[in-house]
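anyone else get weird line breaks when pasting these?? whatever heres mine. first is seq + tokens for prot A
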Amino acid sequence: MNEATQILAAIERGDPGADEQLWPLVYDELRKLAARELAGEAPGQTLQATALVHEAYVRLVGKSENQHWAGRRHFFLAAARAMRHILVENARRKKSIKRGGHMEREFIDPDLCTAPEISEDICALDEALERLTAAEPEVAELVKLRYFAGLSIPQVAATLGIAPRTADAWWAYARAWLLSELRGTDTAHD
């Protein structure tokens, strides 16, 4: 068991000060993850990577109820999920009518679904991803790992415990499904 996994177990047990030991071990990786998340955001994003890291860490470790971390990988998946939720909340807040919510959506091309390379409407993607989660939870988990955590197909396959060919097939299916959903959402609002 590596040091981060041991500290996560200590946090789960409620050991005082364990969260302070975890911070230096995970900060650099969380910062890289936050930078990937923010790279796909539209220009003018006011949330900085450091703030995103701190907010996600507080949500993960600062919760009053105990979290169960099945290891380092699980922690980083949860961190990616927390960052996604923070970005969605921030985007929704910005889209309120008071702050220009009347503006038109710009939809993503799911064929370009890798965090560093795209610019998209995070709210539209989140809504489509929620529908995919309801329909195909395993495929949605793959999308979250690829898109929000920036993992490769082999890394996703290892994380989910599936064959790389299966992960590749699910990724192709998810991209087509999301494209269909986003195009359907686009025409529904015209």
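and prot B, same format (seq, then tokens)
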Amino acid sequence: MTIHPAILLPLLLTLAGCASIPIGQTGASSTINGVELWKGGPPARPYRVLATISRQGPDTSATYHDEENAVAAAAHEQNADAAIILNEVMTVSRLDITDSRPLLAPKVEAELIRYQ
């Protein structure tokens, strides 16, 4: 039995693509108000994403703690089992009116997930 080259090439490319997909590193979790927060990678178990959210704190805040609590609260409200922290950055929230210097605020982006 011979396989036509037009069929063989897509098949080989598909198999090669599957072989080159790197296995991701599992993250580390902590728990806030009964919701797991994953940082540095997703959980090892299967899950599905319910929503992607972003929380930004006031420019008077210097830590991500309040925004992580807000992510955990949002996960709880949407009946999610956990949240995967995608990004934590300090972002410019506004310019100071007296000297036009940028004021920074912590921002957290996360995926709310439910385990399967």
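btw re prot B: The longest helix spans residues 5-20. Residues 90 and 101 are 15 Å apart (CA to CA).
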